[in-house]
Amino acid sequence: MADQPLWLTFLVAFVFMNALLIGMAYMTYFERKVLAAMQDRMGPTRTGPKGLLQPIADGIKLLGKEDLIPAAADKWVFFFAPLVVFVTAIVRVAVIPFGGTVEIFGRQVNLFAADLNVGALFLLAFGSLGVYGIILGAYASANRFSLLGGLRAAAQVVSYEIVLGLSLVGVFLLSQSLSVRQILLQQQADLQLGPLSLPNWFILSQPLAFVIFLIAGIAETNRAPFDLPEAETELVSGFHTEYSAFRFSFYFLGEYINMIVLSLFAATLFLGGTDGPGADRYWGLGLVWLVLKLLFFLFFYVWLRATLPRFRYDQLMGIAWKVLLPLVLVNIMVTAFIRLVGNGQL
Amino acid sequence: MPWDVLVFYLLAAVCVLAAGGVVVATNPVHSAIFLVLCFFNVAAVFVMLGAEFLAAVQIIVYTGAILVLVLFVLMLVDPDDLPEFHAARPVQRAVGVLLGAILLLEVGAAILNRTVVGQQGNATPANVAAVGGNVQALGRNLYTQYLLPFEIVSLVLLVGVVGAIVLALPERLGERVGQRRATISLGHPRGTDVAALPPGLDGPDGETPVRVASGDRPVATGSGRREATSELEATRELIMVRDADERTVVGGGRDSGRS
Question: Which residues contact A244 (CB under 8 A, 6 or more apart)?
Answer without folding.
Answer: A65, A66, A67, A68
